[in-house]
Amino acid sequence: MDDTAWIKLALLSQGITASPEFGDWFAGTEGYVRRRNFYNSPNWDESGTSAALPQEIRLTGGRPVVVAVNNYGSSSWQLTWSEAGGPAIVSEARPDGLPIELVNDLASIRGDTDLARVSNLYGGSALSFFSPRACYFFADGTQCRFCSLDGTARENDEYAGRVTPDEVRSAVAAVVATDSLSLNQVMIVGGNERNLDRGFVHQLALVDAATQALADAGLVDEISVHLIAMPPHDLDLIDRLSEVPNVHAGFNLEVWDPDRFTTIAPGKTADYGQANILAALGRLRDAVGPYRAHSILIAGLEPANSTLDGARKLAADGISPIINSYHSDRHSALGLTIRPSYRHLAEVASGLQELHDLYPIQPYWKGCGRNALDYEASLGMFRGSPPDFN
Ligand code: SF4
CA-CA 20 to 30 A from 176: which of 140, 310, 373, 390? Predict the structure, then answer.
């Protein structure tokens, strides 16, 4: 039985620590993606940074599975390394270890500090731009309770706070000139400026710039462009996405239960409202096409059946739910106060699998969603009874 997708859930539940042997070996390597805290910081090691940890690993099995390296300080899962076996993960459930692969960074990003300032390789195959690297909800004290953007950006100021369309266009052109085979998507995501319409228009310009660079390289059919944003108040602006080829876009609900939404996302509640986000998602679906519109629901922040109720409603409406496991970030209000159990994530994954078997849901991340369950569900990897990991 290929249980790598279930192991991903165990790692997302508990996090993973690193043995000294792994740390020493990894510190001496070159070319693998290191953790770069663009917008979140899920590693609670003593130094407060995690330069010596990979950003994600690939579990090798029947099908490779990408999973985040989130280090919450204690876990029954550990990264190890040995001369004979190379890098692996071990736990009581897998005392003999499971070999893993590290994710190779893009040569173009490694060799160009300007590129590294504006972009990041996410999950091994998404070229990611995060702009703006700030959100006005923090200034108002109404930030989403899981979000650590403000503290993370203050702690790591080497990345751009805002990128321009020209920077995106030239970064995409430079990366695909040497690394196109490593990419399957370009991701535009960010915080929010107070004028949501103006912020959305700017993010549309970034989407257009990425699309133009891909079109110039003849890659617009191979590499999709993905936008996650707050919806604008002027819903007509959403329709502009209908003119963009091979685009996916999403507005995040975060949680489904309306009372929980108010608690978890007070800024979104005050300035937009859950019902209005749902209405904007309908408009987005009409603009980009069924199942190319997405919305994140975070597993672990509400009962599993509530997450699944939301996913079911979205899927029935032609919107692809994105199910992310809650990751505890330093600088967030919730931090380590909540940790979803493996059983909780397995229940959500089994329910999500049923939805993927019923509807043509498209994963937002095409094999690179390090905290997401969707790609594995799209491959049927959560069918059957969950193994008993913990
Ligand atoms: S909308 Fe919420 S999750 Fe997004 S950047 Fe702002 S505070 Fe963070």
Answer: 373
Q: What is the pLDDT of residues 228-242, one digit of tens each?
A: 999 999 999 999 999
Question: How far is Cα 269 from Cα 276, in angstroms, rounded to an integer?
Answer: 10
Residue 30 neighbours by CB under 8 Å, 6+ apart: none
Residues 6+ apart with CB under 8 A from 19: 78, 79, 80, 81
Ligand 1 lined by 231 (C-beta under 6 Å): no
**Tens of pLDDT along 331-346?**
999 999 999 999 999 9
15: left (phi over 0), alpha (psi -120 to 50) or beta: left
Predicted TM-score (pTM) of the model is: 0.96
Q: Is 192 in the pocket of ligand 1 (CB under 6 A)?
A: yes
Question: Rounded distance, CA 28 to CA 33, Å?
Answer: 13
Secondary structure letter of residue 41 according to DSSP: -
Q: Which residue type is seen at 301?
A: L
Give 59 Cα–ligand 1 centroid separation in angstroms: 30
Phi and psi at residue 304, to the nearest 5°: -55, -40
What is the best residue among 143, 152, 264, 274 to mutate for testing ligand 1's pocket, by most ligand atoms within 8 Å of CB? 143
Task: Dump the DSSP string for 267-319.
Answer: HHHHHT-HHHHHHHHHHHHHHH-TTSEEEEEEETSS-HHHHHHHHHHHHHTT-
Q: Which ranges in 75-217 belong to alpha helices (H)?
A: 107-110, 113-118, 136-140, 149-155, 165-179, 196-216
305 vs 154, which has greater pLDDT? 305
Pocket test for ligand 1, best of 38, 130, 147, 269 (most atoms within 8 A of CB): 147
- Could you tell me if the CB of 191 is within 6 A of ligand 1? yes
